[in-house]
């Protein structure tokens, strides 16, 4: 195998699409936090955060290499496809974490590095092993997924504050309908891979109700940044419009008892929603 193919496979283990999404929410926390921003700090924080997330994703690929063979979207990853020895992925993930956590502590502060380490450990040691056992893994997995904006905030401010907690809360409740949607339209793949999801454990009706509940919880949370003074009227208007659209898609699926096609639409809606919300935050925030 050529060096370029090896490099491409190693990069794919970090799940660049998911990691890039994490970087966007981290950047939101950096931008909105009170305090001076410097280019070197931003670069170090974002690179180290990518490294931590990439390490967690790599070890997730290592631990799930057998179940990944049973899912269409994961069977061509380097490990299930047989292009890479499992030990290579294991040590690559460990090395990434060993470099990135100290880099975050040195480039930002100990608090930010500790939050990054907590996210890494929760994802690798709690969320990933629990996925075959209980759908509650989704709730636990949403915790490390909600921490990046908190990391961005503490990297600048040096402390945890209510606005940062709100940003993490928004991300926590956003993830639940997002991942429930995936579990709904990929239900057969989850079953074949031996993974437990909310639709498989409690059924589609409970999953649609869960989605609606989380979307309702998102609405007041997304209005709090304006109340706390980290976003202006432009953000408030955007949040209300985005909330109405996202909630509307979720409510239609709930009341009409829709299935996989609706879940796929909900998934893409969730991506547009998060991108729009964080764009509005950064455009309308105090640093703008």
3D architecture notes:
- The protein has 13 helices and no strands.
- The chain is mainly alpha-helical and 288 residues long.
- The chain folds into two domains: 1-158, Tetracycline Repressor, domain 2 (Orthogonal Bundle); 161-288, Four Helix Bundle (Hemerythrin (Met), subunit A).
- Helix 3 (39-63) packs antiparallel against helix 4 and helix 7 runs antiparallel to helix 8.
- The radius of gyration is 19 Å and the shape is flat.
- The N and C termini lie far apart (47 Å).
Task: Write a concise keyword list for the protein shown above.
Four Helix Bundle (Hemerythrin (Met), subunit A); flat; 2 domains; 288 residues; Tetracycline Repressor, domain 2; mainly alpha; 13 helices
Gross geometry:
flat
Structural class: mainly alpha
CATH-assigned homologous superfamily of the largest domain: UbiA prenyltransferase
Largest sheet: none
- CATH topology descriptor of the largest domain: Tetracycline Repressor, domain 2
Order of helices and strands: HHHHHHHHHHHHH
**Average of the residue pLDDT scores:** 94
Unreliable stretches (pLDDT < 50, length at least 5) are: none
Residues in helix, %: over 70%
CATH architecture of the largest domain: Orthogonal Bundle
Strand content: under 5%
CATH class of the largest domain: Mainly Alpha
Number of DSSP-assigned strands:
0
Radius of gyration: 19 Å
Number of domains: 2
Distance between the termini: 47 Å
If helices are DSSP runs of H or I spanning 4 or more residues, what is the number of helices?
13
